[in-house]
Every structure is written in C-alpha cells, then in structure tokens.
Amino acid sequence: MDSQTRLGLELFAAALVLGVLGDAMLRATPWGLNACLWIGCLAVTGYGLTVRWRTALVPIERWMIVPVCAFALLYLGRDAGLLKLANTLAVMAACGLGMQRAQWALNHRQDPALTDPPGLLLTGTKALFRLPRFLRRDIDWQTLRTDKRGEQARAVVRGVLLAVPVLGVFGTLLVSADAVFESMVIGVFDVDLAQVPGHVLLTFVLTWGVGGFLYGILTRMHGAAENQEEGTEKKQWISLGIVEVTLVLGLVSLLFAAFVLVQIPYFFGGHSTVLDTAGLTMAQYARRGFFELVTVATLALPLLLTLRRVLVVKAVRDLRLFHALASVHVGLLFLLLGSAAQRMWLYQETYGLTALRLYVSAFLLWLALVLGWLLVTVLRDRAERFVPGAVAAGFLIVVGLHLLNPDALIVHTNLARATEEMPFDTYYVSLLSADAVPALLDGLDTLPLAQQQELASHLVSRWGPERPLDWRTWSRSRAVAQQAVATDLPRLWGLAAPLLPPSISLPPTTVSTR
Q1: Assuming Cys at both sites, which of 187, 212, 259, 456 could form a disulfide with 127, CB separation 3.0 to 4.6 Å?
Q2: How far apart are the first and last CA of the chain?
Q3: DSSP letters along 295-313, please?
Q4: Closest Cα partner for 477 from 162, 6, 30, 155?
Q5: 0.70 surpassed by pTM
C-alpha cells in the first residue's frame, strides 16, 4: 500500500470518527462544552495528521490556531444563541482564512483570486468538493483488494456479518430467560428508528466537512501544483474597461447621493421630524428603512470589490479615476450606514432593546470597520491585506459582544426605561438565555407584582432544580444561572407558586429553610 493511499484512508477514517463523535455531542443544544471539546478534537486531529505526514504549515496557519482555540473556549462562557452562532462563524472564518492564505503562499502569488474576499469562500468550497475526487483518484482501491491488511479487514467484516444472526438467536433466548438481563439489553439497544435518518444525515455532513478541511491542510501541495499547471490557461471570466466601470459606479453613487440628500432633515431633526411627517410613524421609519439600508451596504461592498477585480487598467489614469470614484462611493456608504444607525437608535429609544437590534447594530459596526479597511488596502493597491483585516475586525466584534454580555445588557436597558406607558416586556426577556438570569434576579423587585410572579415562574420552570443540565450543553452562564435560582429559590417559589404547574414542586430541603 503506497503512502498516498494510506493518507487517504487515514484522512477518511479521521473524518468519519469526528463525524460520529460530532453527532453524539453536537445534537445537544445550546452548544457549550460539547462544541468546545469537538473543536478541540478537530484541532488535535488536524495537527496530529500534519505532524505524522510532515506537512509544513505556513505561518498564517499556525497563527489561526489561536483564534480557533480561543473561540472554542468562548462556548464555555456566554449562553446566548446568537453569540454561539458568532463563535461558529468565527471558527469557520479562521479555518478558511488559514487555508486561503496557505494556498496563496504555496502558489507563490500566481493566482490573484486567492487574495480576493470571495477566495475565502472559494478555497473552502473547492476543498469540500474535491474530497470525493481525492478519495476516488488518490486511493488505489485495486491495491486494497490484494493487500494483506485489506484482506484482513474484509475478513473482519465477514466475521461480524456472520456473527450478527447468531447473536440475534442466542440473545433473544437469553433476554426471555431473565427480566434484569432483558432490561439491560433494552437500555443499550433502545433506538428510536425515527431519529436514525437524522443521525445519519448529521454524521454525513460533519464527515464531509471535516474531510474537506483535512484535505485542505494535508494535500494542498498537490492542489498547488495543479493550480500552477493550469495557471497559464486561466483567463479572467469577464473584464471591463474604465468606461463601463465608471458608468456603473458613478450611477450607483448618484443614487446613493440622492437618498442621502433626502435623509438630511432626519439626520438633524430626530424624533420630531419623523413624527411631524404626515403618514409616517416611528415604527415605519425605522423598520422600513433599517434593514433595507443594511442590505444595500452589504451588497454594495462586494459590488465595489467585483468592479475592481474585473477592471482592466490600461493606463495609470484609469486606476486613479477608479480610486477616486470608489472613495466617493465608500463615503456615501458611510452616510447610509449612519442613516441606518440613526434609525436603529431612534427605534431603540422608543421601543427598547432586543437581541436582533443589538446584533444588527454590531454588524453595522463591522461593516463600517471593513469599509474603512477597504480604503487603506484595496484602494491603495494592497488588496492582499483586505481579507485578513476584515476577518480580524469580525473577531474583535465577536469578542466585544462576549465582553458586553448582550442578554444582560438588554435586561438592564429595558428595566431602566420601563414606564407605565412602555412597560417591561416580561414575555420577551423570558426567551433570553442564561446570561440574562442574574440581571433578572437583580431587577425583579423593581417590577409590579404580576410581572414578578410571571418572571419568577419562568425562572423556576427553566432554571430550577427540576431541570438538570446536560453536561454537553454546560457553560459557565448556565451553571451560574442555575446556582443563582437555587440560592434564591424560596423567594422565587413564593412569587411563582400560583402560576406553576402541579408537576413542579419545591424541594424538601428548601421547604425546611423557609
């Protein structure tokens, strides 16, 4: 068996094991200790295989291990679902960036596509879809049929298949002979057949993804050679001159400028201008405009990058003209982001803070950082630095959100602004994660009695001793929330007792202390 075949088999076996392990661990949500451990297993497996097969890691890959491990550990901190999603995206971005920059280094900068932002997605996608080709082409399946170890593996499979019906016959008789043995066997083999397709699908998806990632870090030298061989035949799929690019960018910028001019009264008028406008309410102004503006800014950024990519520069003045127009375009995008931020601020001032409003505001901040970074990289002919900087800005936003503790901030903000006209929304905060529990306990006494009872009922039902935590979903916030509720259980029980279902009862140890 040659080394390439052994590499393919080890890669597939490692991916399959991690897929099965992921199915066993990651099905429990919200992710906590399980995600941290699984990502750790992925990192250890990848590093172990690179050591075993003496795959040289470029510096960027070594550095990307740091954010991967850091964001894996952050699963053990906060409990908010959107924060965990941000952690997942950060881990994926770190892995993708490592593979992208490695491909760029190994190609000796011959493929400019690897330095573009779409290359971050392209690299991972290419690795995923090359995995079947790699398994089909690089593993010598014919050799496995005659190899001694392959024959031993086939013998093991045949032995297992022959043993299954025999075990079935004797097992049935022994189960019928003893009730204790029967209960033990049923406990081990109690499988809900309705859930089998879900387990198979999740295992397949994880195996496919992990296999593509391992392929990217273990076999990229072969892929780099292919890219260099094909490099002379590659042609840009589309190219535009400065006239076409100027028209597209100029007309879009004029549209943005017209919108900004209309928004000037609202920039300086605030609440009064909105309310004085006939047929326009605060909710309509914010809801109708905010998400549309965020979408416009999100789409305008790749448009600008694409135009730069397809522009054929025939003279220095072409590049200067593009940079001037792009700078104006970015400036208008900043104004659009400012309008979106103002709409969100007015909306939060009127209706309070929610998780969606907070996270979209954080996304706005990231877009602003990315636009600023674009000015000092892409528009100064340093495009290769844009993607790492944009990813690093995303890392900073995610870490900042963890430090901010969004769910606790939502509770504190809405408690502080609660009035008779705009009461505290107890139903909404009852949907928040464990991160909000300490803040809810601190502010419970400031609420009317009916809301105290409603919140106390929610806290006891969700975080009381009747709801033990799954070790896979463990995080510090969930443990703190459960401990805080247990400590304050007598007071909470006194408030919540009229609303709790009969199935939930106060523990005897707590009754004795009251």
Answers
A1: 212
A2: 73
A3: HHHHHHHHHHHHHHHHB--
A4: 30
A5: yes
* Residue of higher predicted confidence among 216 and 95: 95
Which string of DSSP letters, residue by residue, matches 362-379?
Answer: HHHHHHHHHHHHHHHTGG
Q: In this structure, what DSSP letter does residue 78 have?
A: -
Query: From residue 406, how far is each of 13, 409, 429, 438 by CA, in Å?
Result: 40, 5, 12, 13
Residues 147-194 have pLDDT tens digits of 666 667 667 777 888 888 888 888 888 878 877 777 777 766 666 667
Helices of type H across 383-436:
386-404, 406-416, 426-429
Burial of 10: CB neighbours in 10 Å, binned 0-12, 13-18, 19+: middle
Q: How confident is the model at residue 144 (pLDDT cuts 50, 70, 90)?
A: low
Distance CA 342, CA 274 (A): 12
User: What is the per-residue DSSP string for 113-150?
Assistant: GGGSTHHHHHHHHHHHHHHHHHHHHHS-HHHHHHSHHH
Q: Are 102 and 220 in contact (CB under 8 A)?
A: yes
User: Is residue 360 within 8 Å of 344, Cβ to Cβ?
Assistant: yes
DSSP assignments along 164-233, one per residue = HHHHHHHHHHHHHH-HHHHHHHHHHH---GGGHHHHHHHHHHHHHHHHHHHHHHHSHHHHHHHHHHHHTT
Higher-pLDDT residue of 121 and 102 is 102
172's tokens: 């049935």
Phi then psi for 311, rounded to 5 degrees?
Answer: -70, 130
CB hemisphere CA count around 28 (13 angstroms) = 16
- Determine contact, residues 411/439, Cβ cutoff 8 Å: yes
